[in-house]
Amino acid sequence: MLQPQAQSGAAQAGDLADHFLGCAKLGRYLTVHDGTRFVITDDFREHDMGNAAAVAMASIYSRDPLVAQAALLPLGRAGGMAGNTRRQYERLFELIESQALDPTTVKAADHILKSDFRESEIMAIEADLGDKLSPARLRYRAFLGVVRQILENKVSPALFLEEFREFTRAVAGKLDFGIYSFCLDRIFGNPRVPMKVKKLLAVEMIEFPPMIRRELLTNLFIYPGQAHELISFTRGLVMAELEPTVVVEIELLETFKRNRLSMHDIEAGLSQRLI
After folding, report:
1. Using alpha carbons only, what angle is made at residue 254 by residues 251 and 255, rounded to the nearest 5 degrees?
2. Which residues of 250-274 are buried (b: 16+ CB within 10 A; e: fewer)?
3. Is 172 in a helix, a strand, or coil?
4. Three-state SS at 117
5. Coil, strand or helix: which one is 260?
6. Is this structure's pTM higher than 0.70?
7. Measured on CA atoms in the order 251, 253, 256, 258, is the torsion positive or negative?
């Protein structure tokens, strides 16, 4: 299981809000400050990732509704203990309520604000979030058992593919995208997983929603030591099955993840494509 990554240093904490905003501008899921993984709900369980501004950005701009809702919890509790700074938290929740991308987060922010940051209201939201996450994580662990079976050649590629499809359907909207992504990264990066299985999964990903597909495919391309056969096969799929503008978006994000382009470069490139 992925572990929350603490953000250290005042400068890093201060930059985290800008980092989240940058992710949003690129139409990405939020990543931790160094970009090594996606933010997950656990990141808000024990700490606030640096400061209130960063957590508020997560609530507003996260493309993963579960992460957006989880970010409200430490903010709500901080608001309840704010004392002289209570009004600042009220304004913060008013901002979240007016600008958050996720409708459930908007509703939860409204409830917390109207309840005057009452702990019982925050706990109710936390419990509702847990009701979504817990079954999905159990299903995730069960799927890991199937992954072990494919490593031991105990299931066929066709059966594994069916299990993957069922797993994906079961956890859609209920499992952190960061955990789902981590799972696929490990499958594609494991040399013991048959190449046929990896190619079947790549074909499946072509049909995924655009933002999810873009993140997962670029992760496949940049994974350290990734098999050239798999990269070549997947690039061929991308070129054959996707629109040219979508191909460009994937290529730009891949280059960005390799630290060869800045966010400004990508924005400029996309703007030129739209002219």
Report:
1. 85
2. bbbbbbbbeeebeeeebeebeeeee
3. coil
4. coil
5. coil
6. yes
7. negative
The token pair that represents 110 in the structure block: 């409204």
Grouping H, G, I as helix, E, B as strand and the rest as coil, residue 38 is: strand
**Which tokens belong to 164?**
């993957």
Distance CA 121, CA 249 (A): 41
Q: Using CA atoms, how far apart are residues 178 and 62, in angstroms rounded to an integer? A: 12
Whether residue 100 contacts residue 112, with contact meaning beta carbons closer than 8 Å, is answered with no
Q: Do the Cβ atoms of 15 and 33 come closer than 8 Å?
A: yes
List alpha helices for 26-175, DSSP H: 52-61, 65-80, 86-99, 103-114, 119-151, 157-171
CB 247 within 8 A of CB 239: yes
Per-residue pLDDT reduced to its tens digit, 85-137: 888 899 999 999 999 999 999 999 999 999 999 999 999 999 999 999 999 99
Angstrom distance (rounded) from CA 101 to CA 68: 9
Number of neighbouring beta carbons within 10 Å of residue 43: 28
Are 234 and 202 in contact by the 8 Å Cβ rule? The answer is: yes
